[in-house]
Prior knowledge:
120 residues; mainly beta; 7-stranded mixed sheet; 0% helix
Amino acid sequence: QVQLxxxxxxxxxxxxxxxxxxxxxxxxxxxNTMGWYRQAPGKxxxxxxxxxxxxxxxxxxxxxxxxxxxxxxxxxxxxLQMNSLKPDDTAxxxxxxxxxxxxxxxxxxxxxxxxxxxxx
Length: 120
């Protein structure tokens, strides 16, 4: 069994910063990709950022230049540094990871989400 636990959400004023963390635990053989998605009320879930095991990153267009994703492989943890936050960044942020556990095929796991609210 694999679990992803997010932390770091909260309320922040526009222009401020927040750092999200997501730690993976359980029966982990290899973590392939780790990333963050978000879902605002009435909208579809969208990609925020993803990082693969080699360190290559990819960002959603709306966060490029403001957010930075990183990972600590020794701790099975991914981080999302969010700067210059805007009210449009308000959403529930979900951690996602593709993890090879007991199966030889990697599977996608999701955290329960953490709420980020940006006030104007």
